[in-house]
C-alpha cells in the first residue's frame, strides 16, 4: 500500500512539474485565468488537461509493475507459465501485435489487466486468484479480452479522451466562473476574486463529475468491443464462460485502480459511474452473437 501511495504522489509531482514548465516555456502561464483571451486560455487548459493523462499513459506499465508486484515471465518456470506464454504469443501473432510483456501478480481476486503506452509496448497480466478459480479455457478467453484491449488501442484512446474532458472541465469552469465573478464585481475587486476562486472550484467538481460519466460510458462501450475481440480469438461461448466464472464468485471480484481495471467488473456500482457493464449484459451480448453465427 505504501509503495502505491508513494508512486501516486511521485507521479502527481511529475505532472505538476511538467505543467508548470510547459506553461512557463510557452508563456501560457498568464493565460490560464483568461487574461490573454479565450484561445490562449484554451491552450493553457489543454496543457493542464492532457499532461496528467499522457504522463499516466507513458508511466502506466512501469508503475503497475512496481505497485502491484507483477512478476514478468522472461523464461517459463513451469507448465502453466509455458502454456500462458504460448497463448499470449499465439494471440499476439493473430492480431498482428508485437509480443507484449507477460506477467502474473499475486492477488486473491480473479482479475487481469492490459496496459502500456502503445499497441507494441504493452503488458498483459493475470492474478494468482484468476489462476485458482478459472480453468485454462476460461483463462485463455480472459487473455483474449486483454489482447483485444491492446489491439483496439484502448489505453491510448481512453488517455486521449480523458485529456479532452479534462481540458474542457478546466476551460468551462473558468469561463463560467469569470461570468459569475463579473456580475458580483460591484462589491469590490477582492470580493470578485473570491467569488471567481470559489466558483471555479465548485464548477470543476460539477464538470468533473459529468466528465467521469462520459468517460465511464465510453469505457463500458470499449468493454463490449474487447469481449467481442476475445471471442474472435477463442469463441463466444468460451468468453461467456469466463465471464460467468466471475459472476459465480462476486465476493472475490474487485476493481483494479484506474486504467488497470481492464477485465474486472464493478460488483456494487452499476450506475452511470461504472466503467464496466454488468456481467449479465456482457454474457447476453456474447450468447446473442453466438446465436447469430450459429
Q: Low-confidence spans: pLDDT under 50, at least 5 residues?
A: 251-269
Structural classification: alpha+beta
Output the number of helix runs. Answer: 9
Helix content estimate: 55-70%
Q: What is the alpha-carbon Rg in Å?
A: 22 Å
Overall, the morphology is elongated
| Terminal CA distance | 48 Å
H/E topology pattern: HHEHEEEHHHHHH
Averaging pLDDT over every residue, what do you get?
A: 87
Number of domains: 2
The tally of strands reads 4
Main β-sheet description: 4 strands, mixed
**How are the strands of the biggest sheet laid out side by side?**
1-2-4-3
Question: DSSP strand (E) fraction?
Answer: 5-15%
Description of the molecule:
Belongs to the peptidase M48B family. It is found in: Cell membrane. This is Protease HtpX. The protein is of the alpha+beta class. The protein has 2 domains: 1-58 and 154-292, no CATH class; 63-152, Metalloproteases ("zincins"), catalytic domain (Zincin-like, 2-Layer Sandwich), CATH 3.30.2010.10. Helix content is 67%, strand content 7%. It has 9 helices and 4 strands, in the order ααβαβββαααααα. It has helices spanning 2-26, 38-67, 79-95, 128-133, 136-151, 154-183, 189-233, 236-247, 279-293; strands at residues 71-72, 101-105, 112-118, 121-127. Strands 1-2-4-3 form a 4-stranded mixed beta sheet, with helices on both faces. A hairpin with a 2-residue loop joins strand 3 and strand 4 (121-127). Helix 2 (38-67) packs across helix 6, helix 3 (79-95) packs parallel to helix 5 and helix 5 packs across helix 7 (189-233). Mean pLDDT is 87; it is low at 251-269.
